[in-house]
Specification:
Number of helices: 19
Largest sheet: 7 strands, parallel
Distance between the termini: 41 Å
Structural class: alpha/beta
Strand content: 5-15%
Radius of gyration: 22 Å
Number of strands: 13
Strand order of the largest sheet: 3-2-1-4-5-6-7
Length: 440
């Protein structure tokens, strides 16, 4: 006997009873990733909006520690807001199961949560691979029963889903793998991309698969995929204007002074352009006038340590806490993210840039137009060509010559632009029925 699904994957109108529950699947803290912060912010927005149950489902700490992913020190992570539950289910299956033990554990845990919850649930996954499959496996399991669960599925495609997984699959002529990702993406009620740039990458991938397999992904993706910028807890940053004592405390702890350092704060990877920054800084007017402070961790850490050497004007911190981040951004002379496109990564938004713009202070953002960065900055920054060390050096010198009035004006305009990324606005737009139909 065929049992009809108790949910509709193709529905266009998602209006109904108010959402009561939120489940987010994500690589959560302690991983150094803007999307782990985004998940936290969306969870907090849901609590503020009155959701009854809010769960972030992620991976066991020991799995993360052995993964090779860049991690924050565990003791530096701020606690989640009361009422937000972070679940880390253990693997299901023994050693004979070569792969997928965590995927089954997470999907099964979501099934358990859905059995416990009443009312409408939003189930969101950040990173389609593998979280999209985990989410849809859980929801589709109810199609084989007579148990009704009203679940709104939201799939957020981030850059690495396309630039790493789908593009590599296409490059290796593994079109079936690419089709699996795109099909899973479209199975969600609301598929969204973190920027228009990311959506354009998705459409390009759809064209490639269509050309090889005779499918119609490009058209379906064009019609259904919306844009949802990453959610930021704006008050954490805008309130720094009134927390001068806290800022000074953080700077003193790091032996820094307000307006006395150029800041890089992001993951330490080749695509972030930190090597370019070190070379440009050493050739700029700011060298030996302002410290260069590099904050983060990642696969390029050892190479950058060697490049910096024993230069007393360059310091690298691998242990910056969430509490320190905003204060360091607020107090810097300039914030730099010289991101450049690489095979393994392209910046598809630039969450750290938007956070710096919200943090205020007098330091301008110096960055490139790589990927989705222009959507994060709105042009309220100093720009140079990606990979152009001389161009970066020039903009460092421009920052050195700016008047206090010009710096303050640019900072004000940058914050005004970035306020659109407020977590509450993002969550509200994300769960509105029209979102999946309105993006170009």
């Amino acid at each position: 006997m065929n049992i009809a699904p108790r949910f509709n994957l193709e529905r266009k109108d998602i209006a109904g009873d108010p959402l009561k529950n939120l489940i987010i699947i994500v690589r959560a803290d302690p991983i150094i990733c803007g999307h782990s912060t985004e998940a936290r912010n969306l969870a907090e927005a849901a609590k503020d909006a009155g959701y009854e149950n809010v769960h972030i489902v992620s991976y066991p700490i020991d799995i993360l520690e052995n993964s090779g992913l860049p991690l924050k020190p565990l003791d530096s992570i701020q606690p989640y807001t009361r009422g937000i539950q972070v679940d880390r289910p253990n693997e299901v299956g023994g050693y004979k199961v070569l792969d997928g033990r965590l995927s089954y554990a997470i999907s099964g845990h979501i099934v358990d949560l859905l059995h416990r919850f009443s009312g409408r649930t939003a189930l969101m996954d950040l990173y389609l691979v593998p979280h999209g499959q985990m989410a849809m496996n859980a929801v589709q399991s109810f199609a084989q029963t007579d148990i009704f669960r009203d679940v709104l599925t939201i799939g957020e495609a981030v850059g690495s889903d396309i630039t790493n997984v789908v593009k590599n699959a296409v490059h290796e002529n593994c079109f079936g793998a690419a089709q699996l990702v795109l099909s899973n993406y479209l199975d969600h009620d609301i598929p969204v991309a973190v920027s228009q740039y990311t959506k354009d990458l998705i459409l390009e991938a759809g064209r490639d698969v269509d050309s090889a397999l005779g499918t119609n992904f490009e058209q379906r993706l064009t019609e259904k995929v919306g844009i949802s910028f990453p959610a930021i807890n704006t008050i954490d940053y805008t309130s720094l204007d009134d927390r001068a004592g806290e800022v000074e405390e953080v700077l003193n702890t790091r032996n820094l002074t307000r307006d006395g350092y150029v800041l890089f704060l992001s993951r330490l990877a080749r695509a972030k352009g930190v090597d370019d920054l070190i070379h440009a800084y050493r050739g700029s007017e700011l060298y030996q006038q302002q410290k260069l402070v590099i904050c983060g961790n990642g696969p390029a850490n050892e190479d950058l340590q060697q490049l910096a050497g024993d230069d007393p004007w360059i310091v690298i911190y691998n242990d910056v806490s969430d509490r320190e981040k905003g204060a360091l951004m607020h107090g810097c002379f300039a914030y730099t993210l010289p991101s450049k496109p690489c095979v393994e990564f392209v910046e598809t938004f630039g969450i750290a840039i938007a956070e710096k713009m919200l943090a205020g202070g007098l330091g301008p953002v110096i960055t490139t137009r790589t990927g989705g960065i222009p959507e994060a900055t709105g042009g309220q920054c100093l720009e140079h060509e990606a990979g152009d060390i001389d161009g970066l050096k020039y903009q460092l010198n421009v920052a050195a010559s700016m008047s206090l009035e010009d710096r303050a004006d640019l900072s004000r305009r940058a914050r005004e632009y970035a306020m659109q990324f407020d977590k509450q606005q993002v969550l509200e737009k994300l769960t509105r029925s029209s979102l999946s139909l309105t993006a170009a």
